[in-house]
Amino acid sequence: MLAAGWSTAAYLLWASSIVPDGLELPDVDPHAYLPDRILARANSFERFLRWNFALSTVALFGALAFYARRGERFMRESAAGRIGTGMLLGMLGFAIVWITQLPFSIASFWWARRYGLAEGDYFSYVFGDWLVLGFTFLSLCLALLIVMGLAGWIGRWWWVLGGPVFVGIAALFLFVFPYLSDLDRPRDRALVAQGRAIAAKTGVDDVPLRIEKVSDQTKLVNAWAAGFGPSRRVVLWDTLLDGRFSDEEVGVVIAHEYGHHARAHLSKGLAWYALFAIPGAFLIELLTRRKGGMRNPAAVPLSLLVLVALQFVALPVDNVISRRMEAEADWTALETTRRPKAAERLFAGFTRTSLSDPHPPTWSYVLLDSHPTIEQRIAMAEAWAARRGR
Ligand SMILES: [Zn+2]
Fold first, then answer.
1. 240 CA distance to ligand 1 centroid (A)?
2. CB 3.0 to 4.6 Å from 360: which of 56, 247, 254, 364, for a disulfide?
């Protein structure tokens, strides 16, 4: 019955899409949109980052496997009680992961600087995001407190309550996230008017447009949709507005982000999270049982390995779901702006400005791409134009 319920929910979340069924994407030759020099540059830029990711993953699993085997030893020194000891082991695991990942993170920053895509010095790169670091650290402690507290109370059934509690926390975080970010109102009147018109057209005119200043850290361009109910926002990075993109192209981005809200993608994302988090919590209990389950602090190092492994296994599925929503947002942008040429220039512009490889290797597409490729996005704009006779 549980499996049937799960499948029905997944089917309902998956099935509804405004992208026409059987929409054929034409073959796109990126050379028709971008000079060879840029394509070669994007290719070499991303190739390094891909291998950096592959190696960092190997290092991550190596470190976590080692910690899962040996981590318990540190328990003997702890006099912090059951949950306190579990949290200490969690913090130690977090520190080990952070240190293992640091060289790869620095390597990717070094690489982005070489290509002129990152700003600032190494020190502020590593420690500048201390708020995020502190937040992750506290979240891990809170998660362990909840899991071990529940496991002390209802034993191996903690996941039945723990799973929904984590979904509740995720929902709360989805709601408050826009308030935690440092966002400005747009000052350019034309942009404000353009944002309002697009919001009205997509049917979410109560969602405000905001600007996030990132130009002191990066030259990359981006935008995001966030929040829930009254906290919903569409946010543009200020790098998108520095003159490298035309107003029409910026309009496509704005319409894409409003498309996410119009199609309730953030709530759907949360629903997908619930569909994975609850069985995931069950699997963590099941797979840590040989260390006494999550009641026992000795299981904490192993639970970190299991958690990261489950997240890794879920990555391809996560990306399939995300790419489907992104395609839907692109389709909404085309229907709203009716500017397929601007969309094509915008997507090609992502390769120019952010060096996204238009045609990544399959393994990287499967593991890393939360968006359709630049080639696929251009192809969708062409397909839209062919259908609408533009
Ligand atoms: Zn998107």
1. 15
2. 364
| Distance from Cα 330 to the centre of ligand 1, integer Å | 8
How far does the centroid of ligand 1 lie from the alpha carbon of residue 256, in Å? 6
Q: Ligand 1 centre from 252 Cα, in Å?
A: 11
The alpha carbon of 88 and the centre of ligand 1 are apart by a number of angstroms equal to 38
How many angstroms separate the CA atoms of 111 and 285, rounded?
Answer: 40
Distance 300 CA to ligand 1 centre (A): 35
The ranges assigned to domains in the chain are: 32-388
Q: Which residues are in the CB-under-5-Å shell of ion ligand 1?
A: 326, 329
Per-residue pLDDT of the chain (390 residues; tens, 9 = 90+): 888 999 999 998 888 788 888 888 999 999 999 999 999 999 999 999 999 999 999 999 999 999 999 988 877 766 778 899 999 999 999 999 999 999 999 999 999 999 999 888 898 888 877 888 888 889 999 999 999 999 999 999 999 999 999 999 999 999 999 998 899 999 999 999 999 999 999 999 999 999 999 998 888 999 999 999 999 999 999 999 999 999 999 999 999 999 999 999 999 999 999 999 999 999 999 999 999 999 999 999 999 999 999 999 999 999 999 999 999 999 999 999 999 999 999 999 999 999 999 999 999 999 999 999 999 999 999 999 999 876
**Residue 265 C-alpha to ligand 1 middle, in angstroms?**
9
